Amino acid sequence: MKKGELFIVATPIGNLQDISFRAIQILKEVDLILCEDTRVTRKLLNNYEINNSLASFNAQSEIKKIPGIIRQLLSGKTIALVSDAGTPTISDPGVRLINEAIKNDIKITGIPGPNAAILALSISGLPTDSFVFEGFLPQKKGRQKKLKYLADENRTVILYESTYRIEKLLNELNEYMPERYIVVHRELTKKFEETWRGLPQDILKQLPDKTIKGEFVILLSPILWKQ
Ligand code: SAM
Prior knowledge:
Bound molecules: S-adenosylmethionine
CATH class of the largest domain: Alpha Beta
CATH architecture of the largest domain: 3-Layer(aba) Sandwich
Strand order of the largest sheet: 3-2-4-1-5
Number of helices: 8
Largest sheet: 5 strands, parallel
Order of helices and strands: EHEHEHEHEHEHEHEEHE
Structural class: alpha/beta
CATH superfamily of the largest domain: Tetrapyrrole methylase, N-terminal domain
């Protein structure tokens, strides 16, 4: 029996129009779409009149669901994996599934598209020839150690942060690297998209609300970089 295929499909990070023709076509054609939150992905599918089967696949259910998904792929089914936003596996689930698919010699095809880190980097004005993606900093254990380590980094550093934690992170950056020029992008591609540039303390002063809501990408300039 011919094996199926696993498609890793990037979807928008805010603006629903940021999706490729190929992504839409694949999402229409596959036998099943795996997604983190069926409500989020259903909204996207409805917008493009895609009426396909959805099954949830998230950080909590990932390990439990992999054997069944692999069985379906081995029996010839085509399956797409999407995230709530952006490129699957980038600070999102999917790496374990991909590795199981590799072990079972199942074809994996990526459908490229939005990613908050690369979009933020591309408009930051910071060096792009060499950069490091750190995603979310550890919440507790290892956080200070990581911040100390990043204080000496001579490549552009990309961090993710979610709602309500931005002020805490900026205060920490102000403590560990007060002289570092940073760029903060909020709500990329969305209605309330905003960017702040400067030293951590400057940005702290500019933030309109102390518990500012939204999704953030924070970029640290290389330690030796001058604008
Ligand atoms: N897979 C996604 C990607 O390709 O960018 C990232 C998923 S991760 C769980 C979610 C984090 O990505 C958010 O907390 C935020 O740091 C960042 N992010 C996602 N969408 C964003 C947006 N529209 N603007 C700014 N940051 C965003």
